[in-house]
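Archive entry. Fields below.
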Amino acid sequence: MLELRLVQGNLLKKVLEAVKDLVTDANFDCSSTGFSLQAMDSSHVALVALLLRSEGFEHYRCDRNVSMGMNLNNMAKMLKCAGNDDIVTIKADDGSDTVTFMFESPNQDKIADFEMKLMDIDSEHLGIPEAEYHAIVRMPSSEFARICKDLSSIGDTVVISVTKEGVKFSTRGDIGNANVVCRQNTTVDKPEESTTIEMHEPVSLTFALRYMNSFTKATPLSSTVTISLSSELPVVVEYKIAEMGYIRFYLAPKIEDEEEDVKP
Amino acid sequence: MGIKGLTKLLADNAPKGMKENKFEGYFGRKIAIDASMSIYQFLIVVGRTGMETLTNEAGEVTSHLQGMFTRTIRLLETGIKPVYVFDGQPPELKKQELAKRYSKRADATEDLATALENGDKEGIEKYSKRTVKVTKQHNEDCKRLLRLMGVPVVEAPSEAEAECAALCKSGKVYAVASEDMDSLTFGAPRFLRHLMDPSSKKIPVMEFEITKVLEQLELTMEQFVDLCILCGCDYCDSIKGIGGQTALKLIRQHGSIENILENINKERYHIPDEWAYKEARQLFMEPLVSAPDEQSELKWTAPDEEGLIKFLVNENGFNNDRVTKAVEKIKAAKDKSSQGRLESFFKPAVSSSLPIKRKETDTKTAKESASKKSKPPAGKKKKK
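PREDICTED_STRUCTURE:
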């Protein structure tokens, strides 16, 4: 038996919009600690990890650890039917092959039930080790989205380099090249507009912009984004979700050739 | 060629050991390919109409070069890093099979002559395909072409498939690609089919994982090899009247060919005289391959543009523009193969949660294994 009641039903809609283009089918895992998802894109280059902690729900009941395989496009279709202020409840019975989304309007005068079929998904779960990153950049999420969008009109890849001066995003394409440098900036009035850089070591990595652009679909979830970089690890692009969790995107870097260090 | 009916047998009995993947999903992967098999296919298929094949000015066949060139570029463009493995000396046991093929080819040559006399078009195409033979020259041509393209070439001490499997076992490559199911019998951990099919056919790549196959068949590797021998392989005869399904049943029941021979009804099944199944098994289990530390480093380099033009355009009559364009493609492809994969950084972990949805297959297998558990004690009672 599973029953999760989320007052800010809106959050779930935004989460789905953020992941449905990257992953088509995924298993949602539900345990006593929270509601989570881990899935890779079909080419195994990017991974999304979502966590909504149980404390963030108004009511949270999950008797045993279960996973529910869902088609994210279909799930998004159903959630689109919820109003922006609706309370969303996710329900499933043990052994059932469906999940129910219940939408209640804030003044309780309208209640809608949407039942969706579950699916069997063979998905590989990856263990993601806790790591110390060489550099952590925190910046306004809208700024990051803008940079990715702008650069992708010029090139296919972005080089993100962090130095003492700041963080530099650069690309190169047939028509020319582009560089955007963001400096540390903590003097602004609003903390969500500041840019902070924690750097232990300078780092420079290359990524496919296509994926970065897909990650920025999560921008409505949070006003800031955290980008963690290490030279021998995938980048982590994290959006916090209103005190209750996060959505993290991992992206494997491009390796400038003559490697032989990467396994086949 | 290969193991008779193994694909179907696996599809029926080990569906979880095989899965279909998109061709594009293999970018960045190093893949060992059995070259001789590919060349043979190219000679049969590429640019053939009836008796006519692609030739250069001197009248020598160039179908193999054409095929090798375009297919390899397709792999490179996707970001796959191919390594081609060529056959060395055939093992003693295969000589019989090769002699058979030789005589078949001789028959086909005769048939072709008759078909030509009678002007039988279908017959001409059919028999001329059967007369195809991969010569040393074809192999050398392809090696030269591949080296010019910057693709590594490996010469196997004996069977190419066995060497491919060894490369895969030692982790030098991600998987083995072939159309010949032998690769699985040689123990290639991961085996791909249809990787070399033309893109126009739109056939997805079929990936086999040996550990999962064995798990589902409930066999050990040695038993799997015995199963393949019973199905019919290149190295020895099989028992007439025993096909894949029966072979699987017998192996599961008796555990090895030796035990089967003791228990089988010899009136009903004719066991071949001087049946060399032990030698065949030996060959599959311990084939002649390079030891892991003898395997050469695999390196993918930039293509030699001048060399390619000289070889393909000047010597073999390829269109100059096409070759130049193709070289551009190879160069551009370098960028694609540089994209890393998450699996190289994160290792698979086991998820603790069970699906909320009841799986029908799960309950079924649970029942099956339960009934199996109850069988052995019952058997023991009878013996007492």
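CURATOR_NOTE: Residues 92-118 of chain B form the longest helix (27 residues).
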